[in-house]
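Why do we bother with holo predictions? Because pocket geometry can differ from the apo form. Keep that in mind while you read this record for zinc ion.
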Amino acid sequence: MENCESEIHRDACVGILDHEQLSVIDQRKMESEINVRDRVYCPEPTCSALMAKDKLLKHTNEFFLGAEQVGARKCMVCGTFFCINCNFKWHYHITCDEFRKT
Ligand SMILES: [Zn+2]
Ligand SMILES: [Zn+2]
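The structure, written out:
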């Protein structure tokens, strides 16, 4: 069933593909549904998960008070805190400019 690689045929392929193959298709579908400017990638090289900005913020707010104001985000996959403004690992107490100079 080579058509199973196409997301259009996803529903028709449920029951034919195993769980892992289906999750790959779901992941691709999710990527295509996220607006390019709403995409955020985890800066952790071993993770680099793709997330939607609004979902990521909601997720982070459960762990981090005032996350929206300071730009801190928590990766939904690996749990790494990072900065939405400079997309590096989260830098406590210093601004993005200060962080880049260090
Ligand atoms: Zn991550
Ligand atoms: Zn920053």
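The beta strands are 39-41, 50-52, 72-74, 81-83.
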